Amino acid sequence: MSSSPNVAVYGLSTEGYNFASSSISAGHKVSIIDESSKMGILLNKDIIRTYSTASDLIEDQPLLEADSLDNIISSASYLFFFPKVRKIGHEVKIDISSKFIDAIKPINKNTSIVYPLPMGIAGNEENIDIIEHTTGMTVGENLYYYYMPLSSGPILSTTTILGNFNSKRDIFLEGMLNKFTNQEINFVDVLSAELAYVSRILRHYSGIASVLEVCKFATGYGVDNRIVDNFHKDLYLDDITNGLHDLRIIQSSLHGSNPLVYLVNGTIKSIEGYTKNLIDKVRYILKKRDLKASKTKISISWTLDVNEMRGDKIDVYTLLESRLRDYIGDVERRGKNTFDNYPSDKTTIYIACSKTDFHLLSKNNSAETIIIKANPFCEVI
């Protein structure tokens, strides 16, 4: 029986570690590379049992035996690209391309490259150019390229898209991906994969943007929140911003003036503008309850995964904190599983940015507690 091929995962992100763990569980040989140190670790079942998350592994990473990025990738038959992206705006594509070049430089012939980050329309053509320019090899002849856009958050779908560029159907690869996603693999060409994913993202997040705009209108007219069904009442800032990275990547691939451009731009504008609605609600509470800004404290409760691939939520968190501080000086990020019950002469307004955070706050709720649910109506509890 032939031995299992070597698998390299570039990026010690949550998604990268989850994929590596599922592949280890299936008996494959997998190494994961921390892009910041350019060193990697050969994983095994004992390691993934000891470290259930990427965060746990990162804490003890210096204690584990490591190998260089070049050694790991040059001996790999499969390279999966799961980096942590922390740049925003025009710098994001430069950041991703730089890491992608680092990842593919050491690859050898007949390696299969799998790219899970979202791309805009015709975006994979740029990746193909980068691969061929960097390696001197030809995709489809002595290298293989697959595009597997991995969504952030619950996009309703029963299949995982796997786009290929002049590349063979790979049963071993599809088996790994099926184990990871628990979904049927839809094997198509790269352009079809791009268009299918763009359609999924827009169908989901343009719907969310529509709800945000209707609720903003309703609030202005004093309509109560019964117009929004229970699903959207449980839609929080954490869910609303899940697709920002994907939408911005799609936006950067579009040009000119056409309905698709307007749809993408309008969806992004609505989601980015939601923080203003939250701040307006805080101002409304102060006015209605006759509270002074100097005697008020804001505590933002948003439990983020700091190791997930996309960094847009971290950027939105920082922006929300900064804009609130422009209005109310005392703004804090509430620590996980903590609740400020210390005596204070200030009134604290808690902002729950996810369903999990709201439940944690609700357990410690009292008659004097003010909680804003960061949902489409910015409900006050």
Structure description:
45% of the residues lie in helices and 16% in strands. By secondary structure, the protein is α/β, with parallel strands linked by helices. The chain folds into two domains: 6-188, NAD(P)-binding Rossmann-like Domain (Rossmann fold, 3-Layer(aba) Sandwich), CATH 3.40.50.720; 198-242 and 270-373, Rossmann fold, CATH 3.40.50.
Round the Cα radius of gyration to an integer and report it. Answer: 23 Å
Just give the CATH class of the largest domain.
Answer: Alpha Beta
The spatial strand order of the largest sheet comes to 4-3-2-1-5-6-7-8-9
CATH topology name of the largest domain = Rossmann fold
- Total domains: 2
Overall CATH architecture of the largest domain: 3-Layer(aba) Sandwich
Number of helices: 15
Spell out the key features of this protein.
alpha/beta, 381 residues, 15 helices, single chain, nine-stranded mixed β-sheet, four-stranded parallel β-sheet, Rossmann fold
Q: Could you give the topology of this structure?
A:
Elements: E1 6-10, H1 14-25, E2 29-34, E3 39-42, H2 45-50, H3 54-60, E4 67-68, H4 69-74, E5 78-81, H5 91-104, E6 111-115, H6 123-135, E7 143-147, E8 159-164, H7 171-181, E9 184-189, H8 190-220, H9 230-233, H10 237-240, H11 244-252, H12 259-272, H13 274-288, E10 296-301, H14 312-327, E11 331-333, E12 347-352, H15 355-363, E13 370-373
Parallel strand pairs: 1-2, 1-5, 5-6, 6-7, 8-9, 10-11, 10-12, 12-13
Antiparallel strand pairs: 2-3, 3-4, 7-8
Helix pairs in contact: 1-7, 8-12, 11-12
